[in-house]
Amino acid sequence: MFEVLDRDGLARIGRFPTPHGTVETPVLLPVLHPLRSRSVVDGPELWSRWGVRALITSSYILYRDARLREEAVAHGIHHVTGFPGTIMTDSGAFQQHAYGHVEVSPPEILGFQDRIGSDVATVLDEFIEPDAPRASATRGVEETIRRSEAARALRGASLLAVPVQGGLFPQLRERSALAASGLGDILAVGGIVPLLERYRFRELVEVLAATRPHLAPEKPVHLFGMGHPMLFALGALFGGDLFDSSSYHKFARRESLLFPEGTVPLAALREEVCGCTLCAERPLLSLAHRPLPERVEHLTRHNLLQCLLEMRRVRQAIREGTLWELVERRATGHPALWAALGETYRHPEVFLPTEPWSRRTFRPIFPASFSRPSVVRFRRALAEYREGFSESRVGPLRALSPAGLATAPALENGPDGPLWEAPTPLGPVPLELTEIYPAGVLLGYPDDWEGLPQEDVHGSADPRTSPIPPSPPGPAEGEANAQRWGQRQVRAILQWTWGQAAARALLEMGLVPQYSRATGRLRQIRHGNVVLFVVGNDGLPRPTFQGGRALSGVLPPPSGRVVAHPDAAPFVAQGRSLFARHVTDRDPRIVPSFPVLVVDGSDGLLGVGVSLLAAHEMTRFTRGVAVRVTAHPSGRSGGSSGAAEPRGGEAGDGETDIGK
Ligand code: GUN
Ligand code: ZN
Fold it and tell me: N or C end of the chain: smaller count of CB under 10 Å?
């Protein structure tokens, strides 16, 4: 039922249906006290003034009070709260954490949530404290699993949120995540509030890194109590789809202002630092002289607005492919967040399976930005690429520039001659790969970025490199030299994408690179007049339909392929997207935004496209698009006559906009 529309890191722009509307993720569910008189901002205000479409409230608080309980059963939770949207209810586990016990049985509170018409009911889990010893944590996890199994068997009309516990023990988190994945509609990571309250964010990251890889990718993930806006970007990066917040009123009661950069006590303010609509109307400094209830009321709304705004920024960043940038900028706000970011960089394996093949930009926020998974993957692939060469040299070379290839160093022994490396912000990179993401989108940044640790600049360089300046070719050599460089660059980017054997086989067909006159960058790869590949601003090749044909001839299945169910084949051949539920097989190495061949059961090419899902996700999602088809045989410019170009392929220089 969960559908992914866009993504970055492990974050997803997604949606899923509930009885009271579709929830669009990532989303903040404000915590509403079930008693209307107990909240500054009530259900109707959340809905109409703040545009909130989903919230969370405590079923246990309602249940405990005989009068409220009866009213809720008689009229339903939507009536009691005055909120017409999606209502998730929590089970009382948090009260167990706060007060040490709850006075209700797990089946009783689950049945109650269902009876009052909750859209998402939560299993009553055993809250495991971060410092719980292993034995009691293990017992708690097993007990939560037993209750969740019973809940699954009992469940009514509500969706079921199944909590994941495990304290700080990675194996228990894994066990709990795997079990929840088989039982829940929503997977809710719990037991983290004490880490949040004590700013133990590095351990929070350890918990998320241990949990997230074992959560079913096709289900929404809730992070219980991740309510401070400074954590939203980080939580989303780790795949949090739902967040809940009581911090907007908790901090207001303490007279503190929430900002995505951190918390500011009202009493510490000397300047009007907030320009939000509320504070513009009612300056914060003037508030200091008002009675306490008035101060709390204003701060509650300011805090809520800051939370909602930050979640919008997170969503925007996911759509732009700049979520790492946002996480890094937020990490500068507090030393504990900084430590959490450092811990995040230590877990590239958590991100790599869904790390997009490309993005539109790479903006380093600080030298540590070069520890992002995209760089880790780039460096690993570079090391592999270098192995194919017996000799490499670092020259004072620039990326292939408008001046053209004629000035590139001569290839002394043909296309297999020595490797020439150019300095880039990521360290030396073979000249023919400098336009490739992420190096290619870093071209505006200085190669000798001040403050970049030396081992990061040069540490990854091949020990065989030596700083010999290349000899510029003489005028007569220029043309032949340019041709040799062109062949090497074409081979390099095809090899980067589809491997050495396929690249060599394609090159043997006789491929011709086309360079932009304006920028000197490689824009197309042709065979005769037929465009086979369009090269994006990220330096990476995407096949046209003809290119897909050529590729499928040289790339053995299942490489580069997604296999479509017979029911879907005719639609793909007309250019329609391939839905996940119609994927019958795929190359296990596919990551989001990778260019793929969509084939039928007998490996006949139906179309070429861009994957939205990673390989392991394609066979699990039952909703949404797996591959956006960009070229197909019956396309406008497709068919036998010429090239069906990917979206944007006709723009100007053959620029393509497919990378994120
Ligand atoms: N609210 C905050 N943390 C938790 C948790 O671990 N479990 C449940 N059910 N609710 C919570
Ligand atoms: Zn404000």
Answer: N
